[in-house]
Amino acid sequence: MCLSGDTAQQAALAVKHRKRHSSGDFMGGLVEQIRSIAEEISQNNVRDIRLDYDEDYGFVVEVVLNQNDKSAFETWLRLIEEVRPKGIVLSVDWTGENILSEEAFVQYAVEVMLRSGVGPIRKDKFSAVREIRR
Question: pTM score > 0.70 for this model?
């Protein structure tokens, strides 16, 4: 499943304004497609799936998994590859234990950012001059 930028933008606007798409419940269909893929990858460990619109990131689908952090990261990476989101952000949370070391956690987080093309957003403006004067 690959979503075009236009499709994701339409979906984001529908979520933001809580409108139904003219072809029916477009948003529900999108979420159910992602849920189905996530269920298969996680071996039926999807606890919840939510759809929202974030001012910074745009259209966000969050999948909550009944897995530990390591399994959830592995599911997340496979989900990114299967869905190949364009113009949407896939987010994963988990209900299980945190078993990864800090180093391994950071490695997985970086891999998710690289594969998804999504990284942190800096809210304030950086000023080299201001930093040097400190």
Answer: yes
Cα angle 118, 103, 125; round to 5: 40
- Find the distance separating the first CA and the last CA of the chain, reported in whole Å: 49
| Four-point Cα dihedral 103, 104, 109, 113, nearest 10 | 100
CB 64: neighbour CB atoms within 10 A?
18
Structure token digits, residue 12? 């984001």
Q: pLDDT for 80-97, tens place per residue?
A: 999 987 778 999 999 999
CA distances from 105 to 1, 15, 41, 68, 108 (A): 28, 31, 20, 12, 5
Closest CA to 89 of 123, 65, 54: 54
Distance of CA 36 to CAs 44, 48, 79, Å? Answer: 9, 12, 11
**Cα–Cα distance list, 32 to 51, 72, 99, 112, 123 (Å):** 11, 19, 30, 22, 33
Q: Are 73 and 112 in contact (CB under 8 A)?
A: yes
